Amino acid sequence: MFSSLSPDHLACLLPKTWLDGKAKATVTGLLFGTITGVTGILLVLSLLTMYIFATEYARRYLYSWFWNTHHLYPFVLALIVLHGTARLLQEPTFHYYLIGPAILFTFDKLISISRKRREIPLLEANILPSEVTNLVFKRPVDFHYLAGQYVKIALVNSGTGRDEYHPFTLTSAPHEDFLSVHIRTCKGWTKLMRDLIIKNAKNPERNPNLYVDGPFGEAHQDYSNYEVVILVGGGIGVTPFASILKDLIYKSTSVQSSLTKVKKVYFLWSTRTQKQFEWLLDIIGKCEQDDTRDMLDTHIFITRFYQKSDLRTTMLYICERQFQGISNRSLFTGLKAITHFGRPDFDRIFEDIRSCHEDVRKFGVFVCGPPAMSDSVTLSCSKITGKQTFSAYAENF
Predict the structure, then answer these.
(1) For residue 382, what are the contacts with CB-CB under 8 A and spacing of at least 6?
(2) Which residue among 94, 186, 244, 297 is buried most deeply as judged by most CB within 10 Å?
(3) What is the mean pLDDT of the chain?
(4) Closest CA to 136 of 147, 145, 149, 126
(5) More confidently predicted of 307 and 124
(6) Could you tell me if 360 and 390 are in contact, meaning their C-beta atoms sit under 8 angstroms apart?
(7) What pLDDT, on a 0 to 100 scale, did the predictor assign at position 21?
């Protein structure tokens, strides 16, 4: 601004700084000698720091830096308030817009802090295939949640960071008297946690307790609004559907069956290899066993295979279909779920589902997985929507 405007213009804009076309302060003085200049510089540096550590790389590999730098927000808000106190252009007004949200935010923070500092015993820790760790912990009496919601977890006195909370979807169902999560091991906190569980395998009583904050919601809670529900999971993105499946099957076979309008559930899970879904087999098997109304139709897609035209894949198809026809079970999983080899063709799948439910006007499609898969599902929903609507709800990880 100082370099592009004439002294006359600046005299109009900054009457307290310019008088009769003569500057009362230099540019350096304005930047480093006034509260507006100093707070402006600090704001730029703070926001730039927060932006850098909000990148995908930082969130994946420098999570503690991401976490700590984003706690600069009170400092940033304070600087914004101070920035206008010099009244160079007008009377400051930002604080008028800040007071209301700040009161609500403070109230929410106080509730969150009271929950965060409540220790919850870890009842069970299981090391599962595909670098997945299952934590089962006590459910507080006043803890109420919906299927598909998530919590934030920190370990107590474990050396992994007392205040480092990480979000994980609950895989337990609301009717169960415990809480559980399934955590895929990556770098950083999840690896430290898994190593600690392995270290204490012979002495599980040494496993740390948990701090749990939540529950928090997301788009998948709307599944109960549809008669036909399509759940699409990719890799570890299947975790919210573990809770939803158990909840739906429980409600359909209990006295609460009249409370849900869901009549059919299609569960599609795409995973790279057979080993990546071994940890979920028990959950799917239990759902199939309890599904007395034939509500659940499960399809597992193993994508790390050759093209369908390849002879090896063709033989796998033949063996799987033959075994499925004889025993009504998958040769690879032992489940009623049908195993496919290759990526799912969502256009064809949704068309087949639509043709099976010609009287249904609205289908709920819930997807959790990589962005590419979410985009593919959303595109297929938009293509097939006509007289019958396919509403897509996507969550990426």
Answers:
(1) 392
(2) 244
(3) 77
(4) 126
(5) 124
(6) no
(7) 46
Mean pLDDT of 115-136: 79
Q: DSSP of 25-80, one letter per residue?
A: S-HHHHHHHSHHHHHHHHHHHHHHHHHHTTSHHHHHH-HHHHHHHGGGHHHHHHHH
Alpha helices (H) along the chain: 7-13, 27-33, 35-52, 56-61, 63-69, 73-83, 94-116, 189-199, 239-252, 281-290, 311-327, 346-356, 371-384
> In whole angstroms, what is the distance from residue 189 CA to residue 394 CA?
26
Answer whether the bond into residue 370 is a cis peptide, omega within 30°: no
Gap between the Cα atoms of 66 and 53, Å rounded: 5
- Residues 193 and 158: beta-carbon distance below 8 Å: yes
- Cα separation, 249 vs 102, whole angstroms: 42
Of 144, 146, 125, the residue nearest 134 (C-alpha): 125
Distance CA 177, CA 171 (A): 13
Crossing angle of helices 346-356 and 371-384, in 10° steps, is: 40
* Adjacency order of strands within the sheet including 264-271: 338-341, 296-302, 264-271, 228-234, 362-369, 389-396
For 40, the token pair is 């402006």
Q: Which residues contact 267 (CB under 8 A, 6 or more apart)?
A: 231, 233, 241, 245, 284, 296, 297, 298, 299, 337
C-alpha span between 303 and 272 (Å, rounded): 5
Mean pLDDT of 103-110: 85
Which pTM value belongs to this model? 0.69
- Phi, psi (5° rounding) for residue 117? -90, 15
* Closest listed residue to residue 213, CA positions, set 135, 125, 105, 109: 109
Picking from 148, 151, 149, the residue whose alpha carbon sits closest to that of residue 137 is 151
Cα–Cα distance measured from residue 31 to residue 74, given in angstroms and rounded to the nearest whole number: 23
Say which range, 60-69, 81-90, 203-212, 226-235, has the weakest mean pLDDT. 81-90
pLDDT in tens, 29-59: 667 777 888 888 899 999 999 999 888 888 8
**What is the DSSP code string of 93-114?**
-HHHHHHHHHHHHHHHHHHHHH
